[in-house]
Amino acid sequence: MITFDDVTLTHPDGAGRVTALDHVHLVVPDGAVTVLTGPSGSGKSSLLAVAAGLVRPDSGRVLLDDDDVARLAPSAAAALRRERVGVVFQQANLLPSLTVRDQLLVMGELGAVAGGRGQRRRELREHADALLAEVGLDGLGRRRPHQLSGGQRQRVAIARALVHAPSVLLVDEPTSALDSERAAEVVELLVRLTRERGTATLLVTHDLDRLNSVPGLERVVRMSDGRLDVPALR
Ligand SMILES: Nc1ncnc2c1ncn2[C@@H]1O[C@H](COP(=O)(O)OP(=O)(O)OP(=O)(O)O)[C@@H](O)[C@H]1O
């Protein structure tokens, strides 16, 4: 679960400051997708950055389960992010020279042992292949990114975000590079994985109109000028 408790974030802006998040209260529960939408500049990316512990708010608490990422030192926030947070971006950001399976194996601790041999390496490959099957890419582990469609590349990015079995999934505009059908499929996949794995998923999108056929997107919050619609979800 992610809990934003009275979170305010400002940035320097010339002589003054611009308010990106203005006393935000929001709960992102486990096992459901919470959709965050709103116009450009309304504060959506700022909320994700704060949840990931990449940016420290001026005030308020940001709880990942029971840990307040807003109060952790940068190194502790980075460790928490590695262990408990999965992130999916607008572009899949895959490494062009690596196979699909190796995109998963280079993650963190897996990367360290993936260079090894024997039993452990076999287990990790099996883990990667199982994840690829889970996102609908069964048997495509040996392909490289240029041999995949945009929707398939985004699925690899989702599988990569799940390598460490995160409890929190932060997803930033995953469908903006996809046609409507592919966009709906990718979000359906996120809804299913969120339910099956029990992750607290926060999905930022401009694309709500194209996604209204997707079941399981009932929790929608809108931002404008750094504030959430009232009543905020609790
Ligand atoms: N590093 C920064 N320095 C100064 N101002 C910033 C910075 N980051 C964001 N802002 C400002 O904070 C506000 C919120 O920006 P944010 O990027 O969170 O909005 P957004 O809703 O994600 O926009 P978009 O949909 O265009 O990505 C905007 O006014 C933006 O100009």
TrEMBL record:
One CC-aspect GO term: plasma membrane
Organism superkingdom: Bacteria
Annotated ABC transporter domain residues: 2-233
InterPro entries per record: AAA+_ATPase, ABC_transporter-like_ATP-bd, ABC_transporter-like_CS, ABC_transpr_LolD-like, P-loop_NTPase
Cross-referenced SMART domains: AAA (SM00382)
Single GO term (MF): transmembrane transporter activity
Listed Pfam families: ABC_tran
Record keywords: ATP-binding, Nucleotide-binding
Protein name in the entry: Putative ABC transport system ATP-binding protein
Taxonomic lineage of the native organism: Bacteria, Bacillati, Actinomycetota, Actinomycetes, Kineosporiales
